[in-house]
Every structure is written in C-alpha cells, then in structure tokens.
C-alpha cells in the first residue's frame, strides 16, 4: 500500500517550489510521483488517499537545539517522549544537546542515543560535548565523534570561559569540519542571576543577568576566529564554523552581522520564546518559574532587534531549546526554578502567529528557518520533493486555531509560559520513515 497526498500546497524553498500539487509515496517511503496543479496522480486500489486541501506540505522540520534528558533524567523527558513531542509539533528530526547525565562526551554516549533512536518516529542527531564533562578544561575526542557521524560539538549551557581552550576547540574542530555551537555567556557576570538585568529585575528584587554577557563571549570567540584566519595557523582550506545558540540581544546580532560581512563562517538561531516574550512578561506573570530561562527573556528593545534580524536575514534558524523540567522544578519560588522551557509543540504555532501572520517574515522564509537552514548548518542531507527521494514531510495547517493546554502535550513536562495561549497555525502531521503520523486533533 502506498500513499497519495492530494492537492496540498507544496512548499520547498530549497527547490524554489511553492505551488499546488500531489505526491505519491511507495509503501517503503520513496517518492514515486510528483504532479503539479490539479492533475490527478495515477493510483491503485490499495493506495491510501490523504486529502490535504488547504494544507502545507513542507520538507520535514528540523529542530537543531533540543534536550531530551536521556540518559540520566528520564523523569523530565525520555528519547521516546521527546520524539513524540517532536512529531506532534511537526518535526521529523531534532539535534540533541550533550548535557545529559552523564554528558555525551564520548562515542559511547553517541552509540546509546543512536541505538535507542532506531525505532522512534523522528531522526535524532547527536551533538557531542566540546569538553570532557562540559567542564571547559579538556577537549572531548572530536575525531572519534566525527567517525560516529557527529557533525557538531557544544558545551551548551556552559560556555567555555578559558580563551586558550576555546582557541584549541576552533583549531581541533576545523580539522574535522565540525560545527562549534556556543551558548554565549560570560559566567563571571551571571553567577546567581535569574532574569534580565533592568527595571523589572529591580522591581522584583531578583539578581539580574546583564545582556552584555552574551556579546562579551561572542566577541571573544569572533576575535579568535579572525585571528586564526588572518594568521593561517591551520590548514587554509579548512576554516572554523561557528553557530550562536539562542541569540537574544541587539549587541550580539550586530556582532554576527559584522562577522558575516567579513566572510566568517558564522550562523545563529533564535527561539520562539525570545522573539515572542520579554522581561516584562516575566514581571507580570503570576507563576514565574516558566519564564525563567537562559539566556533570559530580555528587554522589549532586544526582542524588537530579534524581529528585525529575522526579517533582514541575519538569523539563520529557529530552534526551540526544548528544555523539559518536572513540575516541582518550576512551580517554586523564582530563585529556585530550573532554567529552561519546552518548545517543540508550540514552535510552529508561535512562528505562524507571531512572525508570518504579522508580516515579519514570509511563509517560505519560515520553512527555511525551521527546516532547510538547520539541516544545512549541520551538514545534513537536504530534503527534496523528487522522484526516488525518501519522503520526509511536515504537514501544516496554517489556519488551525487552538489553545495550548498541558493535557494535550506529548512531552513528559509542561513547563511552558504559553499555557492557555491561543495560537493560529498547527502541525497537522508528519510523514517520515515510511509512516504517516497525524496529530491527535485530526484523528478525533
């Protein structure tokens, strides 16, 4: 039995494709035919017809920044529950950060993830730790990571503070064309701090994180990249690649713009919570735990800078930084709350509601940010709507109106500031690994 996805809006920016059409997929998940317009696809009696009138079929969405807490903290999330949350949010693949317990700082941890991922509905890519135990002191085995298919390294949540170690990381990673993903934070400025430093942290009496801490670390890293390139202290044919995780400030964005103009291989991502919320939202929230994250929700001006950067092309990807925590780790005094929120199941809705429907970006640009670019940044195989290619689709209903509720979430955790928020736009389902998974609301 094959599948015929009929009369959808086929949208794949990589191919310059945005038109009405239908796709036929074999029972093994291979695209057999693509037709455009209202022309019908040849079918057999046992083909399953999926009427997608009014729906978007896009290349499978990919979230390049997630935490599934497995191994070590499965009470927050597991590979299985995280994958189910990803599928429910319309993602066919995610990249997992290495700050598990133990840290993924050796091929053994990579093998563990890959073994358990085989039967899950989405692809799980592994980001290896940059240093042993993510302690910032000794580099992890980049070469061995590379031999296990790892394409990026990061000490996410714990920026390398030592400039010599960071220099060595750039040089070592360049030998294997590994992407360095940095959580930019000068920790000497942020110890014991909870939220953005400013008017609202003062009113709440909470220690603030100065937003310059992000730009200070980013500036140091970019200076090291320039130094290495100018002095050609590594193979001139191999250049460092650097990605800024969850960028959140105007100053950091200006540094990225300058680096790109200078020809450095630098990319950056933003999260839906940073382009939607600011520190005033935390101030006004009754339950503040779900508004505590790193980098913190920043000023309204910094949020506006993110929207500008999304519109002008400075930002390369949207990533959720999906960070599950149990109820007791969030429903507590703000100064005891764990950092981070979940985001896989709200990402599409927030992107459409806050960006596409408000004219900040086009729908095609949204698909670039959510699917095409993350795969490109991580050197993953692109998705094509072409005969002979493996079918890897996300199906999106642009007009679905829905409300975020804890009861409907597939994640083990419900730590999101968007509970009870009304959104427009939702994942209708995914087709990946030869399987069609429709969202619960579709099947009811």
Give a short synopsis of this structure.
With 444 residues, the chain is α/β, with parallel strands linked by helices. Helix content is 30%, strand content 22%. The chain has helices at residues 79-88, 107-117, 142-147, 163-175, 199-204, 212-231, 250-261, 272-276, 279-284, 300-312, 347-356, 363-377, 440-443; strands spanning 3-12, 17-25, 31-36, 48-51, 56-59, 61-66, 91-96, 123-126, 152-154, 179-182, 195-196, 208-209, 241-244, 266-270, 317-318, 393-403, 422-432, 435-438.
Features of this protein?
2 domains, eight-stranded mixed β-sheet, globular, single chain, 444 residues, alpha/beta, 18 strands, 13 helices, Urease, subunit C, domain 1
What can you see in these coordinates?
The protein is an alpha/beta fold and 444 residues long. It has 2 domains: 3-57 and 389-443, Roll (Urease, subunit C, domain 1); 61-377, Metal-dependent hydrolases (TIM Barrel). It is 30% helix and 22% strand. The strands form 4 sheets. Strands 1, 2, 3, 4, 5, 16, 17 and 18 form an 8-stranded mixed sheet that branches. A 5-stranded parallel sheet has the order 9-10-13-14-15. The protein has a 3-stranded parallel sheet with strand order 6-7-8. Helix 4 crosses helix 6.
CATH class of the largest domain: Alpha Beta
CATH topology of the largest domain: TIM Barrel
Number of strands: 18
Largest sheet: 8 strands, mixed
CATH structural architecture of the largest domain: Alpha-Beta Barrel
Provide the residue-averaged pLDDT: 95
Overall 3D geometry? globular
Instruction: Please report the distance between the alpha carbons of the first and last residues.
Output: 24 Å
CATH superfamily of the largest domain: Metal-dependent hydrolases
Oligomer, anyone?
Answer: single chain
Q: Give the helix proportion (percent range).
A: 25-40%
Count of folded domains: 2
Structural class: alpha/beta
In DSSP terms, counting alpha (H) and pi (I) runs of 4 or more, how many helices? 13
Q: Uncertain runs with pLDDT below 50, 5 residues or more?
A: none
Percent of residues in β-strands: 15-25%
Radius of gyration: 21 Å
